[in-house]
Design goal:
Elements: H1 2-12, H2 15-37, H3 39-44, H4 52-83, H5 88-125, H6 130-180, H7 183-233, H8 235-241, H9 245-282, H10 284-289, H11 293-346, E1 350-351, E2 354-355, H12 363-405, E3 425-434, E4 440-450, E5 454-458, H13 465-472, E6 480-485, E7 488-489, H14 495-499, E8 502-505, H15 516-521, H16 529-538, H17 542-547, H18 565-579, E9 583-587, H19 595-608, E10 613-617, H20 621-624, E11 629-634, E12 637-642, H21 643-648
Length: 649
């Protein structure tokens, strides 16, 4: 609940819009009750051929007479009690009568007060003809209904705008968090987890916020307006009609807990659904190559079946909320009809010795009372949907905010230090690293790479080569020791300042589903088309790009599937060349290129790597020929030797 309250506080920052929505909701509630109350003059007065002015005068006269008579009777009883004329049961009956007279007097005094205040308004604004009064009342009901719906529409739009903005803000925060986390933290949720958070979880929270500032405000105000009118007619009878409220309240608390539990299940199933879907589609080539289509189909059918089962439970509890709340509404109306009918038929003011009204109720009065309770029962029914929406929002908040509160291990320094460009040296000082805290991937690494040196990193698979590069790029921070640039720890530098110095080409080339021009320009977004083409020429990509009908405007498709592996790698090299960084990192960057293309790229690399630090992970002898020094990584132990010594060995 604390996370959902946090979302409500975030929404409350847009208080001017919410205040306007609240005022509109108050207007809806007031007009909702006023439309029902407007029936009273039609029933009580105009259909009897009377005017509201004469009805109010007569009402005032009768109330004053009742007040005077009650006061006189009460004074007489009090004198007789004081004189000792009444004793025993007679005295008890007299005291009870005095209490009844006091209650009726207060009611009549209220009628006198309201009639006196109402008289000048009736004389000034309402006609004296009964039929004209009916037309005025009908017109008021029609106009007020139109205004009520205008208020309701405005309130709904304002609340929805706030909720959608909160949802958008949360999506942006989740996206920013995904980009800021180190790789280990990112993989705990994975692409599927973040996608579920950005889509369904944010929608769940937006639904909860809409329920709170929409229905949770409007519907209770409508209930309050109608019950307030019913209280004015008879507060005792109104309380008698609410006898089922505690039972319904208990059932709603139970239902809310069930809905919250099912909503958590839906969210968990949604995460699994995205996981299976993305995993199968992203690895569709492997699925097809190993004829695992039926297996993946079954996995997907299983997860969608589980989602459907959980969704059906959610639908069941959601549907169950309507009859539970409707029981309260029907119970109120049924109780009021039974008690009210008995009071009107027998012209009584009490039932089972309990006073319900100060004086016998009239047929028009009890009909308006029924109307008020019916008016209250409809928003009570709608509150079930509000409760469900709030519970869904609570579950969404409980999933989103802990993720947003997760601090990235790659923390930005409060006062970042800068290093002159180009740098002089990259140094790993007693660096150790472990992904899980159990197995050490790198052990006490001490190695220095001066500016301009071309270093090849070799060793068996799983030995720690890529980990070494990831530490230099600061995709991870060392478990122990420091990585320094010109003596400044990377943790003391701004991430943007460090990474703008690095161009990276990986074995698994990552391309966006955009044009070739877009993918190359990603290396330096302010580059001109001429610079992009020059980078492509240096990477020997211009030739095949020019052969495409759309040239550099050719769309590469998701993950670049329209291109061959070698073409993808040359586009990635062009992107790195365009960046013109002082540190070039190649992680098996020529592994998918044919021999002739490799020769041409090596020539390009030989020219490009001048006055740059180059770190190459490779197994190819042709690439090793470009290296000045070779770093061997084996079982976490790192050794560095000049390339000439390694080649001689």
């Amino acid at each position: 609940m604390q996370y959902f309250l946090r979302a409500i506080r975030d929404a409350a920052r847009r208080w001017p819009l919410l205040a306007a929505a609240f005022l509109c909701s108050a207007g809806v509630a007031g007009l909702w009750g006023a439309n029902i109350a407007a029936l009273f003059p039609i029933i009580e007065v105009t259909l009897n051929g009377d005017s509201l002015q004469s009805w109010n005068d007569r009402r005032l006269t009768e109330a004053r007479a009742r007040v005077d008579a009650a006061r006189e009777e009460r004074s007489g009883l009090e004198r007789r009690l004081a004189a000792g004329e009444l004793t025993g049961d007679a005295a008890t009956a007299a005291r009870r009568r005095i209490d009844t007279l006091s209650l009726s007097t207060r009611g009549d005094e209220a009628v006198v007060y309201s009639s006196e205040k109402l008289a000048p308004w009736l004389a000034k604004f309402l006609p004296t003809d009964p039929f004209t009064t009916v037309l005025w009342v009908v017109t008021f009901v029609v106009v007020s209904t139109f205004v009520k719906h205008a208020f309701l529409l405005t309130s709904t739009l304002l609340v929805s705008w706030v909720a959608m903005n909160i949802s958008r803000d949360l999506r942006l925060q989740v996206f920013d968090k995904a980009l800021a986390l180190d790789r280990a933290q990112f993989m705990r949720s994975g692409s599927a987890g973040f996608m579920a958070q950005v889509t369904s979880t944010s929608d769940m929270l937006a639904s909860g916020i809409t329920s709170v500032f929409g229905g949770a405000v409007t519907e209770p105000l409508k209930i309050a307006a109608c019950l307030g009118g019913a209280f004015c007619i008879s507060w005792q009878l109104t309380l008698a009609c609410l006898t089922m409220a505690p039972l319904v309240g208990f059932m709603m608390v139970w239902l809310n807990r069930r809905v919250r539990g099912v909503s958590k299940g839906i969210l968990a199933r949604s995460l699994g659904f995205h996981h299976v879907l993305l995993e199968a589609l992203n690895n569709v080539l492997t699925v097809q190559a190993y004829t695992m289509e039926d297996f993946e189909r079954q996995r997907f059918r299983n997860c969608t079946r589980d989602m459907m089962k959980t969704g059906m439970w959610h639908t069941f509890y959601f549907a169950l909320a309507n009859p539970i709340t409707e029981i309260l509404g029907i119970g109120m109306v049924a109780t009021s009809i039974a008690i009210g009918a008995w009071l009107v038929i027998n012209q009584e003011t009490q039932i089972f010795g309990i006073t319900m009204t100060e004086r016998p109720m009239t047929v028009p009065g009890i009909m308006v009372f029924f109307g008020m309770l019916i008016g209250a029962s409809d928003p009570v029914r709608k509150l079930s949907g509000v409760f469900t929406g709030v519970n869904v929002g609570i579950v969404g908040a409980q999933s989103l905010y802990p993720l947003l509160d997760t601090p990235s291990k790659l923390r930005e320094p409060a006062h970042p230090r800068t290093v002159a460009a180009p740098h002089r040296e990259i140094r790993l000082d007693n660096v150790s690293f472990s992904y899980d805290g159990l197995d050490t991937v790198l052990k006490d690494v001490n190695v220095s790479i001066p500016f301009g040196e071309r270093v090849a990193i070799v060793g068996p698979n799983g030995g720690g080569k890529s980990t070494l590069v990831n530490l230099v790029c600061r995709f991870y921070d060392p478990t122990a020791g420091r990585v320094l640039l010109d003596g400044v720890p990377l943790t003391d530098m701004a991430l943007h300042d460090l990474r703008r110095r690095i161009a990276l080409v990986t074995q698994q080339t990552e391309l966006f589903n955009e044009s070739i021009l877009y993918n190359i320009r990603y290396g330096r977004w302010d580059a001109t088309e001429e610079e992009i083409m020059e980078a492509a020429r240096r990477a020997h990509a211009h030739e095949f790009i020019a052969d495409f009908p759309d040239g550099y405007r050719t769309m590469v498709g998701p993950s670049g599937f329209r291109l061959s592996g070698g073409q993808r790698q040359r586009i990635a090299l062009a992107r790195a060349f365009l960046r013109n960084a002082e540190i070039l990192v190649l992680d098996e960057a020529t592994s998918q290129i044919d021999v002739e293309s490799e020769r041409l790229i090596h020539e390009a690399l030989a020219r490009y790597v001048e006055n740059r630090t180059v770190i190459m992970i490779t197994h190819r002898a042709s690439t090793l020929a470009l290296a000045d020094a070779i770093i061997k990584v084996e079982h976490g132990v790192v050794t560095k030797r000049p390339a000439s010594q390694m080649q001689a060995a």
